[in-house]
Amino acid sequence: MEEVLHINVQSALEKQQQGKARLVDIRDPQSFALAHPTNAFHLTDHTLTQFIQESDYEEPVMVMCYHGISSVGAAQYLLNQGFEEVYTVDGGFEAWSESNCRLRALNDTSHSIQQS
């Protein structure tokens, strides 16, 4: 069985910005709507089929939750579905937002908002 990899926020951001990995956010719809990483895919029970159908199983996937705990189970599930390289983002959205990474609100028409 493949093992879930861990990645820190800065490395995750770099991979995402370089187009070397896809970031998915598994938090609840309200939290995702309030703020989420720019270009993150909102992975839920309702969007899972779409995500799997649209994904390249060879492209690395980084899974984010609130604190980096629930994402481990979701990442393992994706590995079990055949994804080759799956990471959990250590510290989750909390660490992402605390590190001043780019965030976006669902109804935000700009490209991103920078937290300070």
TrEMBL record:
Catalytic reaction(s) noted: thiosulfate + [thioredoxin]-dithiol = [thioredoxin]-disulfide + hydrogen sulfide + sulfite + 2 H(+); thiosulfate + hydrogen cyanide = thiocyanate + sulfite + 2 H(+)
Transmembrane segments: none
Record keyword Repeat present: no
Gene Ontology molecular function terms on file: thiosulfate-cyanide sulfurtransferase activity; thiosulfate-thioredoxin sulfurtransferase activity
Pfam families assigned: Rhodanese (PF00581)
SUPFAM superfamilies reported for this sequence: Rhodanese/Cell cycle control phosphatase (SSF52821)
Enzyme Commission code(s) on record: 2.8.1.1
GO cellular component annotations of the record: cytoplasm
InterPro entries: GlpE_sulfurtransferase, Rhodanese-like_dom, Rhodanese-like_dom_sf, Thiosulf_sulfurTrfase
Catalytic site positions: 65 (cysteine persulfide intermediate)
Keywords (A to Z) from UniProt: Cytoplasm, Transferase
Cited SMART domains: RHOD
All residue ranges annotated as the Rhodanese domain in the record: 17-98
UniProt-annotated location(s): Cytoplasm
Top EC class for this record: transferase
Family statement drawn from the similarity comment of this UniProt entry: Belongs to the GlpE family.
Function: Transferase that catalyzes the transfer of sulfur from thiosulfate to thiophilic acceptors such as cyanide or dithiols. May function in a CysM-independent thiosulfate assimilation pathway by catalyzing the conversion of thiosulfate to sulfite, which can then be used for L-cysteine biosynthesis.
Protein name per UniProt: Thiosulfate sulfurtransferase GlpE
Species, as recorded: Vibrio ishigakensis
Gene assigned in the entry: glpE
